[in-house]
Amino acid sequence: MAVVFTVMSSMNIIAILIGIIFVNDNKLNPQVMLSITMSIDSLVMPILQVVRLLGNLASASTSAARVTEIMDRETKINTNVDVEPLADVAGAIEFKNVSFKYDDADDKEPMILENFNFKFEEGKSYAFVGETGVGKSTIAKLLLREYDPTTGDVFVNNDKNLKDINLKSYLDHVGYVEQEPQIIYGTFFNNIRYGTFDATDEECIEAAKKANLYDFINGLPEGFDTVLGERGFILSGGQKQRLVIARMFLRNPKILILDEATSALDNIVEKEIQGELDKLAAGRTTIVIAHRLSTIKNVDQILVLEKGVGVSQSGTFNELKGVEGRFQKLYEAGLMD
Ligand SMILES: Nc1ncnc2c1ncn2[C@@H]1O[C@H](COP(=O)(O)OP(=O)(O)OP(=O)(O)O)[C@@H](O)[C@H]1O
């Protein structure tokens, strides 16, 4: 492709150079030379455009093939689309004898969770802490049923195995706030409404007020119609988090999973956002995957994960701070701002 471009582009330069020589020797009228080079231009340009188009078509067909390959991939998770959707989801979740590793087939891979038993009670808040790689985010993935346990089961609504229920109807009641908030290309209205598509403008505005984002949006020249995302208005890390919190207020989930939701923010913004997250968590079963101990001071129960041990300690922040153990070590290591 590059060769074609070079040859085509050089044709014009060569014609001009030869033309200049001929004009100098009085063998060619300058006006004729000008019209010849212009004709070459109008001949070469469409050819170059076609060549460029062919190049784009080739990369588009490669991308289309990759998308088709991904779409055709068989998922290991049966989402049970044919099962009657759950009318409601109770906030209690129970892990029974759950062991998990990512590659079932690899005998050498150690279990990340081993025989984990725990009951999350409705409306209470929990936090998982522990060193990096210990398996905190893996628990969030099991709760979202991105993976099924290698052995053991997760139960919701008392006795319903997460593997057997209509997954979409369960996930409709689960709110997930990721470390890196997902902003879509669209207006504030589109972004807040994402996931609750039938919400009215008034409901979006109400959610923005709860997330303490209303005054900021309202102060923009185009207000809630300001376009965000790639090539759109750029939000700061804290504003993005607030936007996701507004989205969650609108969704009103029974179960809330916060995966290090404030870890990308500086201390001052983090403290402000923490207030909004606490409001959001009130009355919902909340599970925090935490890096900073300061964000989990108020949760009902902290579970300390340790490699090869599982849950080595549990209790409230003040209880754990006062006893010798892994939590105190994390606390003393400065994980508390
Ligand atoms: N998709 C995956 N495939 C294979 N192994 C994975 C996958 N995701 C995570 N792991 C491995 O599982 C272990 C637990 O990872 P996990 O992300 O749950 O830890 P974490 O405690 O959340 O760590 P961090 O605090 O660094 O986020 C790690 O050894 C990690 O390398």
Description:
With 337 residues, the chain is an alpha/beta fold. It folds into two domains: 2-72; 93-335, Rossmann fold (3-Layer(aba) Sandwich). Helix content is 43%, strand content 18%. The protein is built from eleven helices and twelve strands. The strands form three sheets. The protein has a six-stranded mixed beta sheet with strand order 6-9-10-3-11-12, with helices on both faces. It has a four-stranded antiparallel beta sheet with strand order 2-1-4-5, with no helix packed on it. A hairpin with a 3-residue loop joins strand 4 and strand 5 (160-161). Bound molecules: adenosine-5'-triphosphate. Residues 102, 112, 130, 132-138 line the site of adenosine-5'-triphosphate. It is found in: Membrane. The chain crosses the membrane at residues 6-23. It is a multi-pass membrane protein. It comes from Zophobas morio.
How would you describe the shape? elongated
Name the ligand types: adenosine-5'-triphosphate
Order of helices and strands: HHEEEHEEHEEHHHEHEHEEEHH
Which fold name is given in CATH as the topology of the largest domain? Rossmann fold
Strand proportion, as a percent range, falls in 15-25%
Report the strand count.
12
